[in-house]
Amino acid sequence: MLRPKAAVLPDSALVPDANLKPPPKRFTHQVVAEQPFYYASGHADAAPDGRFAPGTKLLLLEHGDGPLCWVQDRQGLCAATPFAGLRALR
């Protein structure tokens, strides 16, 4: 069996500790189409830190006046993402 060469990922591949919490027990929203997420809400004009896949279930943590809201996914990742791309679960 041939194994690929091991590679060390850069520090930018790490999720900041502040953006990780224990996974939620319930979900309130679902991602309609693939959309970006950001580790800090003030970086919406910057490159996204990742993307949520369509159908991802999220817990809405906070939604203010702006276009971004704070959500948490099933792995416990907390991130800011556009609220317009979410739909409420029934």
Explain how this protein is built.
- The N and C termini lie far apart (49 Å).
- The protein is globular.
- Helix content is 0%, strand content 32%.
- The model has no long low-confidence stretch (mean pLDDT 92).
- It has strands at 29-31, 35-37, 50-52, 57-63, 68-72, 78-82, 86-88.
- Strands 6-5-4-1-7 form a 5-stranded antiparallel beta sheet, with no helix packed on it.
- Strand 5 (68-72) and strand 6 form a beta hairpin.
- The protein has 90 residues and is mainly β.
How would you sum up the major sheet?
5 strands, antiparallel
Q: State the strand order across the main sheet.
A: 6-5-4-1-7
Could you list the spans in which at least 5 consecutive residues all have pLDDT below 50? none
How many strands in all? 7
Indicate the percent of residues in helices. under 10%
Overall outline: globular
Question: What structural class results from the helix and strand content?
Answer: mainly beta
